[in-house]
# Entry
Amino acid sequence: MIASLPMYDRPETAAAHDQLWQGIRDALRADGIAAPEALSRDIDCWQGWQHPDLLLGQTCGLPLRARLHDKVTLVGTADYGLPDTPPGYYRSVFVVRTQDAALPLGDFATRRLAYNEPLSHSGWAAPQLTAQTLGFQFDSTLHSGSHRQSAAAVARGRADIAAIDAITWRALERYDAAAQNLTVIGQTDAFPGLPFITARGRDPAPVLRAIGAGIAALPGDAGTILGLRGVVFIPLADYLAVPTPPAPQSSPKQTP
# Structure
């Protein structure tokens, strides 16, 4: 059995994620469901998400709607208690260097966007959807490999702007020096948050109950670190209804 929570896992939050999993694991076992002792951190995300023995994973909305929706079972979505955002939803914040803080978002139409992954809703799709509402798209891009690296690329001048999901931005502000040189100048609309999934054909109900129990059992310090408020169910149709902009490979100005 595989349990993996990679999306917001980093050295500073690893112990809190372990505590979360311990609560989920114990609730599953109390319900008669076998569960692995510890989280798997040595498995590729895509391999884990599509593994027939996946008990619990967490993915992004864009991979779910683009590739996984007919290969996995949707369980639920964590609520991170973001302000002015419906439970289970999230936003990306636009970050720029502090000296550019007074510029409106439209002024970045011809400047370079750092994005984490082509199949990231928060780092790629959400900023492009926001740009569309302002009549442009980000054509000059830098593929960074992670939100953390996107923030560093902007801070170091390799890119000019990045869209970073608000939960990750909380952690960057707390733990990363590069964030001290960045300023938020706006945010995207709210979209369904990062969903929990399990293997195709597995009953999601006991897994959803166990996640709720695991969150409720978190010690105060771990709950603060993760920022979790609970878990909700957002229908798959709501994820599939989110538009997907063209992939960055279509941009002639992409920088590796």
Summary: The mean pLDDT is 96.
